[in-house]
Design brief:
0% helix; single chain; 35% strand; two-stranded antiparallel ribbon; 125 residues
């Protein structure tokens, strides 16, 4: 079917002070993935390298961005955590640390959702 825009305006989440971005879904349906588009800002990794989705010092296939439900339970990505000391998730072929957009697959392959259901996007380090 393709992608459907879930928010009517850009949302922002922060890398500091546990500041997630909250949004409510605009329709009922089944989510297989959520596409995030970078608008502005970045995370500075190790003081110098820039990244939009989180720092992983050993592998650019990992991100530190997750999506949770209103109870703070992770629903995406699929939960393939890295083996290094950082809490990062594997997103195969996501495009690298400064990709303009990423597609995060739902845990379990898909999730039934309801209109007005609240979700949050977090940076997890």
């Amino acid at each position: 079917v393709g992608y459907i825009q879930l928010t009517d305006k850009p949302i922002c989440y922060g890398a500091r002070d546990k500041t997630p971005a909250s949004f409510s879904l605009t329709l009922d349906g089944t989510l297989k993935a959520i596409k995030l588009r970078h608008i502005s800002g970045s995370v500075h990794c190790s003081g110098k390298s820039i990244n939009f989705w989180g720092c992983s010092p050993t592998d650019a296939s990992y991100i530190m961005t997750i999506i949770t439900n209103k109870l703070n339970k992770p629903i995406a990505p699929i939960g393939l955590l890295s083996t290094n000391s950082y809490p990062s998730n594997l997103i195969p072929n996501y495009g690298g640390p400064i990709a303009s957009e990423i597609v995060i697959p739902m845990a379990g392959g898909q999730k039934k959702v309801l209109k007005d259901e609240q979700m949050e996007i977090w940076y997890i380090e």
